[in-house]
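Thread: Small ribosomal subunit protein bS21, structure

OP (GT): Posting the sequence first so everyone is looking at the same thing. Length is 66 residues per the record. Can we get the structure tokens written out before standup tomorrow? I want them in the notebook alongside the other entries.
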Amino acid sequence: MQVVVRENNVDQALRVLKKKLQREGVYREMKLRRHYEKPSEKRAREHAAAISRARKADRKHAERDR
């Protein structure tokens, strides 16, 4: 991943880098890898996330159909 520093503006380049890292999911991955997660816990977490995504999609479809 690269960020171009223009006119010695390091602060702006740092903001751009942080935004790119967040969009790629690096921060989320670091948080998950901070501690060991049992495979059963990982499955349960992923299953719960899938359910919440499905519910959100259903809400959006229901709102669009109104």
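GT: Both are above now. Quick notes for whoever picks this up: The chain has two domains: 1-35, 36-66. The mean pLDDT is 94.
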